[in-house]
Design goal:
8-stranded antiparallel barrel, mainly beta, 2 helices, two-stranded antiparallel sheet
Length: 181
């Protein structure tokens, strides 16, 4: 085998690369068809069963998804009139006071439309909050259906996804939180 390989290495064959400058035009007026893929012979298809969190009811414990697909219980969701977030999210709809629940603890979160100096985010505060990950909130932004909270250094400290009339997410350390307003 070594003899064969050494013969290839010393053959003196050189290769060159020819670069093509030809441009290929896109196909115009074509149609695309789609259909379900056939199952391979001898295989079976199983429908995935995804667990769903229990619906949130004011005064009852809230749930947040864990990485393994199970759900952890959080503290009780506070009684609140709620905001109408059914027609889409805007910065204006999120302004004002919110309650953030994590375990048995709650904090007041204030979202303003005052721009935080040197950023494109808005100022936020959690006056008197005892939650380690949340007491350092300095700014926030809305990205699609997600509220992101940042500390004074611009590091993201929480990310929450819109779910009905509230937001469910985690602090940077992985602790589950719910934001209701």
């Amino acid at each position: 085998m070594a003899l064969v390989l050494s013969g290839c290495a010393s053959s003196g064959v050189t290769t060159t690369s020819i670069a093509s400058t030809e441009t290929i035009a896109p196909i115009q007026d074509s149609s695309v068809a789609s259909s379900d893929l056939n199952t391979l012979p001898g295989s079976t298809v199983q429908q995935a069963s995804l667990a769903q969190p229990a619906p949130l009811t004011p005064g009852q414990p809230a749930q947040v998804a864990n990485a393994d697909g199970s759900f952890a219980r959080l503290g009780s969701v506070p009684q609140a009139a709620g905001r109408d977030l059914s027609t889409g999210l805007t910065v204006e709809k999120l302004l004002g006071g919110w309650t953030v629940v994590s375990g048995a603890e709650q904090c007041k979160l204030n979202l303003t439309q005052t721009t935080k100096s040197g950023t494109s985010r808005y100022r936020a505060s959690t006056p008197g909050c005892a939650l380690d990950g949340l007491k350092v909130v300095a700014s926030w932004q809305l990205v699609g259906n997600q509220v992101q909270l940042f500390d004074e250094n611009g590091d993201i400290i929480a990310s929450l996804i819109h779910s009905g009339s509230q937001f469910i997410g985690t602090l940077a350390g992985g602790q589950g939180i719910t934001m209701v307003g």
